[in-house]
Amino acid sequence: MKKGISPIFAAALIIALTVTFSLVVNSFISSLSGQQREKIEDLRSCSGARIKIESVACENDLVRIYVKNTGSVQLGNFSVYIKMGNHKMINETPSLSKDIINPGEFALIETRAPYSGLLERVEITSKLCPGVKDTFTSDIKEVYCE
């Protein structure tokens, strides 16, 4: 007499394990595709996003960046990159005249200059729409901070 599990029970166990494994994999893949769908929707909503630095001024150590939303979607949550000689600075939370800039509107972004001297490069980036940015360089106009 042989001892062990019956072939029917073994087959049922294999089927149950296979179904369970399939459900776990399906759940994992569904969550990944949902995340990818959200990213694609975010990118689509930002496809009409544009920002333009209209002018840059410096009063003492306060850098004032006047921007215009030239796109078709709202922008906000900006970061500012400043380069002055060998000195670089990124301000993730600059002062804004408005939280959200609607299409066609102007806004003022202010941040402190890290040092005195020529502003070689000022770059603003919207974190609401990554990749949407504009750059002002000293080739356009020389701006000095004291």
> In percent, how much strand structure appears in the residues?
35-45%
Count of runs of 4 or more consecutive helical residues: 1
Please write the string of helix (H) and strand (E) elements: HEEEEEEEEEEEE
Radius of gyration: 27 Å
Highest CATH level, the class of the largest domain: Mainly Beta
- Which spans of ≥5 residues are poorly predicted at pLDDT below 50? none
**What structural category characterises the helix and strand content?**
alpha+beta
CATH architecture of the largest domain: Sandwich
**CATH fold-level assignment of the largest domain:** Immunoglobulin-like
What gap, in angstroms, lies between the N and C termini?
A: 98 Å
* Biggest sheet record: 4 strands, antiparallel
Strand order, main sheet: write it out.
1-2-8-6
3D architecture notes:
The protein is 27% helix and 39% strand. With 146 residues, the chain is of the alpha+beta class. The protein has two domains: 1-45; 51-145, Immunoglobulin-like. Strands 1-2-8-6 form a four-stranded antiparallel β-sheet, with no helix packed on it. The protein is elongated. The relative contact order is 0.18.
Primary descriptors:
alpha+beta; Immunoglobulin-like; 2 domains; four-stranded antiparallel beta sheet; 1 helix; 12 strands; 27% helix; elongated
Show the helix and strand layout.
Blueprint: H1 7-45, E1 51-59, E2 62-69, E3 75-76, E4 78-84, E5 87-91, E6 95-96, E7 100-101, E8 106-112, E9 117-118, E10 121-126, E11 133-137, E12 144-145
Antiparallel strand pairs: 1-2, 2-8, 3-7, 4-5, 4-10, 6-8, 9-12, 10-11
